Amino acid sequence: MVTVPDSRPWEHAGVRVVGGRLLVAGRDAEGLAREHGTPLYAFDVTRVAEQARALRDALARAGLTPRVRLALKAQRAPEVLATLRALGAPGSPGAVGIDACSPGEVRHALDNGFTAAEISFTGTNVSERDLDVIAPAGVHVNLDLLSQIERYGRRCPGRTIGLRVNPRSGVMRGHAESLYSGARPTKFGIYEEDLGAALEAARRHGLIVDTLHVHLANGMLDDELPAFDAALEPVTRMAETLLGAGCPLREVNVGGGLGTPLHAGERPLDLDAYAAILARRFTALGVAVGAEPGEFLANECGVLLAEVVSVEERLGATFVGLDAGWNIMNDAYVYGHRLQAMVAARADAPGRGEVTLAGHINEGNDIFAAGEPFPEVHEGDIVAFVSVGGYCPGMWTDHCLRPRASMLYFGERI
Length: 414
Ligand SMILES: Cc1ncc(COP(=O)(O)O)c(C=O)c1O
Prior knowledge:
By secondary structure, the protein is an alpha/beta fold. It has two domains: 15-45 and 299-410, Lyase, Ornithine Decarboxylase, Chain A, domain 1; 47-298, Alanine racemase (TIM Barrel, Alpha-Beta Barrel). Helices cover 27% and strands 25% of the residues. The strands form four sheets. Strands 4, 16, 17, 18, 19, 20, 21 and 22 form an eight-stranded mixed sheet that branches. Bound molecules: pyridoxal-5'-phosphate (PLP).
């Protein structure tokens, strides 16, 4: 059991500070960087399993039948998938499944030992070419637009499907409005006023609706739970509508959106409070409750290590240049997340002055952090970004022909 100080809420048994030095799975992070070179992602894969178990157990404690799936877009490393696979044999209560969002992800999940019955597909703007792969695979498909119900129905009449709905409100930590479900139209999910038309389209093609799907959140911690609860109100109503229309509903899948604490003062999401909301909303419907987190399962397992290649004062600002760029960690650019960085060898050193952490991609906004307090730092130091195991490692590009970071996986199944 690791006691986590308020100032480092991202710490856990697999990524922690001992004697001032950052350790990943018990190995010295700076030592890993020197031995394997930078930029380097180091993963404590065991953390993914710990998070999956914690979520599953909280849902079960609340009296729910849990169906936990990893949103594969967040982490697709075979090492991570093997660890999750080991949590339970297909069909067993402990098993964790996969939510896939592309034909490639469906194939990848099958190739890594997940059965079609354990894979749910929730994609967007799915083409006939996509269906060439998805349909024969036999995975359960959640459809998110009226026209997609038509397309899938023409191709696969009589199949069992889920409907992804959009309740018009959502929650994104650090943002005023959810990108998935808010007052402004988004590309995801069937609106309540179109539910009748969706059911009609499903009926016309003999599609059987057994799942209601919604994804409305991102990065939720306890502060966001009341808004999450409120956003579920129309979802409950839509589930009742489906049941009233005779749909054999067996699961409400509430998507992902669970956050992990990163900055001083943040606390881990209270999973029992999260599960209690779901139990209050859905127990009476007699359905299983699905959750398909990405960040929650994957963030805390990964650390990015980069070497400092320059430290310079520029018009009064201290620029710290790294041998890593947005091409290997662009989640923060896409979503505006604030990163948590430190010097790996002095991970508990207090901030001395403000720095701008810049990357080695020739774009002006290749900046990891601007004006952030940072300890004294020198060329050759190793800088670590913690809790970047979700999305970042997979969202890389070869822009500027900078190569991908190396990856090192440690954990109980490796
Ligand atoms: C349909 C769906 N499910 C699950 C997720 C995972 O979200 P998160 O990583 O915030 O848990 C996403 C992310 O975009 C998504 O679109």
